[in-house]
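Re: weekly structure request thread

Next one in the queue (58 aa):
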Amino acid sequence: MRACAWVMLRHLGLTEEAQRLRDAVVDVVNVDGIRTSDVGGSHKTSDFMTALEKRLVV
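Done, posted below.
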């Protein structure tokens, strides 16, 4: 599901934004260690989204 957003951005020609979003998602999972139950973690979706927002804020 998370991949859908950056795939759509890329499809719309927003390749830089798509890459930035993808990189942020990868960092939240791999660097911050935040995973929701659907991918074997125990965090809430709101935890994931909060961490993602922090990585995307310029």
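The chain has a mean pLDDT of 93. The helical segments are 2-11, 15-30, 45-56.
Next request, please.
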